[in-house]
Amino acid sequence: MNATAQLVLSYAMIIGSYIGVPLLLWAAFRWSYRWFAGGGRPIESFLPHPAPRPSRTARWAESLLLGALGGMALLATSEAVQLLQNGWEPTDQQRDRVLLILAAHAAAVGVAMLLCWWRTVAAIMWLVAWHVTLLFGGEVGLFAATRDIKAEGDIDQCPVIIDLGDQTDHVDILANGVYLGQSPIHTTIGALQALPAWESAPLDRNEDGYEPSTWSQHPLHVSPRPGSGESDKLRVFFRTELDGTDVGRNRGSSGGGGTFQGRSWYPATLSLDVQFKKREAVFRRIIDHARLRDYEVGPDWETTVASYGPALRNMLLDLAEHEPQLLGLLDRMAAREYALDDVKSAAEAWQKFQTIAAQANEQSSYATDSPAGRAVEQLAKLVDAHTVADAAVARLRSLGWAQVGDHWNRSRFGVPQFGTRPGWKPKRLQLQPSDFALAHLVHRLDRRLDAEMPYDDNVLEDRLIPELARYHTYYEISDFWSSYLGGNLAARLSNSGIYASDAPRHVPFVQNYEASERLQQLSKLDDPVAKRWRAEHSRDLLQHAEEICRQLRRHGGSSELEFVFLDDPHLPNSLAVQVWPFFRDAIRRGANAGDSHEPTAEQWRYLLRIEPNTTAQMYVDAWLVGRKEPHFDHGWHELIPKIPSDKRQQVLEQLVAKTSERMDQLKGQRQTNMKHELERLQRDLAKANRPQRAGEEIIDRISGHPSDVGTQIAIMTDAFKADRDQPYVQSLAESSDEREQRWAVAAVRLFPTQKNRERLNLLIKHVHENVRDSATQLAKELDEIAAKVPEPRQRKVRKASD
Amino acid sequence: MSDLCIETHELGRMFGKTAVLRDISWQASAGNVVALLGPNGSGKTTLFKLVRGLLIPTSGSSTLLGTRSDSLPDSVTNRVCCVLEGCSPPKWVTIRQLMDLHAAAYPQFDRALAEELVKQRGLPLNRRFWTFSKGQQRWAELALSIASRPDVLLLDEPADGLDPAVRRELYDRLRELANERNTAVVVASHVIADVERIADELVLIQHGQITLQASLETLREEVREIELPADQVPLQWGDGMRVLGSKRATSSRVTWVRTPGGDVDRRLQGCLSERAVVRPVGLEMLYFACTEYAEAS
Amino acid sequence: MKPALLRWLLWQTLPVTSIAVPIFALFVALYPGPIFWMRDTTLWILILLHGYALHLCLGRPRSSSMAHLYCQGFSRQTLWRHVVVATWLAILAAWIPVAALIWSPARVWIQSNLLDNQRFFVLAPLERSSPVFILIAEMVWMAVLNYAWVREAQPFRGLRGGRWLARLFVIVALLMPFTQWDRIGPSWLVPTAMACWIVVGLIAFWGTFRLQSRMEVRI
Fold first, then answer.
1. Are residues A122 and A235 part of one domain?
2. Residue A702 — pLDDT band, cuts 50, 70, 90?
3. pTM
4. Is A174 a member of any domain?
């Protein structure tokens, strides 16, 4: 059927379902009424009689009553009204037809109000007929109105959105040699099909010859016909460029869509995951500048940081977890950008927050690590809790139950995409960027209130938890409570004091075990009141944990044990320490049964979390459990550096000895594998023997990735977490070993804090020429970085003809 | 202040296509007892309801104590008592509760009198209404109405169910009320003998229209029953004389004639033969003359 | 106001109130979830039935006891005023124990301790405003029923319009919990619906006030 015929048919369906069917029903009602009123035979006349004067009041009253009742019923029954209420965004063609339906709705109520001046009963019959049609007729007309009229060839118009996932930078995207524009790209399947066909990606050439291609293939699967289950693969090679200088290295992609689902095409999406190495080098320079200036930076630095947008801010925030001075810088930037110094009162703070929320919606973006997010964190110290609670409750109610659980139980709130994707959910039911801002504000404010009054009622908990509970079953909100609010709920739960008599309920992810609902809730609640409760009921919790351990299975269950680490797991008598034997036995049982995935790593992670209440022997015993199938158990290697240095050597010595013994008993490939493992352990042991080796170890790891600054930063960050003052740099610098001194230079390069820069002065005066030269060169380089703030990003928009 | 308590002007009421009352123009004055007579279905109760404002007239108008009946304020309603057929109090009520209600409704309600009237008939004040006989219930209602000391008292078949002694008591009290408190009492009743004892005026309604309206005194003076042999006809009825009704017996013919203008017997003698017997007429016979034996003209 | 008349009218509603109070109290005490006036069909059915029963007690135009009152020495305005106040008091009498259960810790205690409903006290704050909404809903319903009554006692033809309006009201009232519309609607929907209810109540009230002076007492 062609599009015109479909359009005509849809209008016919609208007219039929909104006028014809109610009219028929009305006629049927009238006939029935006359039949019943006539006692089995239709009464003679249904015509009105002229009413005396006082009936004018009745007519007015009934007409208005019918208008109000009809309008209300319409709100409840009309799917068309609900569609628009929910923010459905129709096409022009659909809008015309839906407007026609809405006009029909209004006319129906109007007709009833007019009919009332003739016969009230007739008017009521008309309204009932109309609503019966809407309620039970399934709104055929609406289906016709909202149905996208598409012919088979319209597949070409199916939208495709190409973006860079979490990266919100505008990046040039090329496909099969053709420049598409800057991300996010909104195109169509037809446009991609029209690109020049490439069978393979061309090789890139440089002075030294060829290098890996910067073009990477990302196939799109699309249905050739609406509703068909078939799928065509569209071969497209993409290349990304940042500001015309930095070519993105492909790390993968994700996406999907492009299928027909009844009413409209779902847009196809493609998220490219790429890495811009030049930009990362600039980032590092910018961060080093701040470090070398002991985090005392000027507005130029802030301008530069702001010019690189979320990508740099994300990195700063990651680093700030263990380098809080960076967080202070981000906060200062936010304060300046949003003039937070002028905000003095709760009312001003709330007003400012509303401005930020409105901006977030305008820009379709919000993130806790953005200046806006940092500003919200600062505003949380000032805003009035009742105002925030009112706003949050209102928003929760307007969102309905569907969304809350999905998004509100995160510690970070943000909109990673360029807005929400069209056609996914009704706009009204989608969380808006401002909602993330509000959730963020609620989260920070709750923490503030908990800190101020740990055991008292907190208005946010008081107001929001019932609202959330209203839409959720008990378990669905438990995670939310644990990670988000708690407080008052916990207080009331614990004060009720009857949890022991609760009906048991299945513990998620743990087979064959049921426990009191409230026990489960309270065990997970991250809140001062719950903490106190746990201290008072440690025996019950121990028993609960023991039961969970008893039922642990592969691929799940251990997450339910997280609660044991909530309250000071490092204390000698902590719950985590007490639960360890049960956990260990559970892992052993699992390993013997082939259920445990990484028995050594799992146990070591546990032991690391209860330090210093461990012994070297505990690590060794845990390692031995995983020896049955060592090729499945590798995660523990990464954990060796995290074992406290006083135990690490002892652990490694025993591991080397045990591996050596075992190697002798094996043959062939298994022996070779064991040999490699032994060598690695021996290297680890050698490092562990001398504390200075810590720096060497880091340098070693970094030198394994000579050109990958991102990975270097990650390793650096990891090391930084271990010891912020980096005393090993000092010890390396003071060493008499030239090699170690070189490590010291390299370490300073990696951690160019002001303190390390001073340490470099020692090395500049060193006797070893190599050390001296490299230190001098590094000092010069660092001084340059410290002296000059890197330029802000120069955005370059490529022209289509480039 | 006018003595007129009730006044209707061309009052009419339709129920569907049926005209129950037509062109009722009637007045009742203070201190008078009006007997409202008429056969069943003639429209007496409807007239009461229209006057009391319980129904809205289809045509004409009615006033009660000088105020239109369809918008009576408290200042009028609390001077009007109305005991209608079918408007009896609920069965769960006690006489004391009824008294309280009357006290709230009528500022002049005399509780002592009410108690006296009720106790006189041995009715306990705290017993529920449904424990009383029909006559006792009716007496309680009437007693309270009398004790309310209204300016207008509308009674529809008040004696229904009452024993002769109570009926006598009731009508004595009504007469007393009219005489002493100047109350306009309108009584619709089929017990004509009782009404005749106290009524000042008679209003006869038939088929929704007033067919006779006069004071009882006037009627006694003006109406005569004339019995003639069956084979004899009157010579000629004089000017102003009106035959109300006539009845043919086997050997005689009885005719009821109203002769306004005084000197009735002398004027009648001029029209009748010597064989004619002229007698005064009682109310009951007058009623029959105007209803059962009414002249078609 | 005339206390004796008010007492008289309230006495008439006593049978309904004495039945309604334990039923409502039991319903509220045992109902496991938070009570939402727009959501619970059972609640709506109770409101509608109670209102209709009160209407039968107070506002039956053809009952002899009501006709008796209209024959007494009260003006139409006085009677109407007292009937309205008595209606409200009768509604309050039936729902105040419910409100007391909801607003006091009693309901939470019953649910938590006797019925082992462990989540209820978390949800309890959500129904704090329900008694107010219930009262408004029933007052609106009574206003519509009174309108139907007065309309039916008018001296003109086509008297059943009011009765049909009341039936339409029942349909719309039950439509709300049936479609669960407040769950999916936007935030302004519930306040709008509330406003509509109140408008319906006010219009019915106004209509009744205008028409009652010309109401006929037919037995």
1. no
2. low
3. 0.67
4. yes
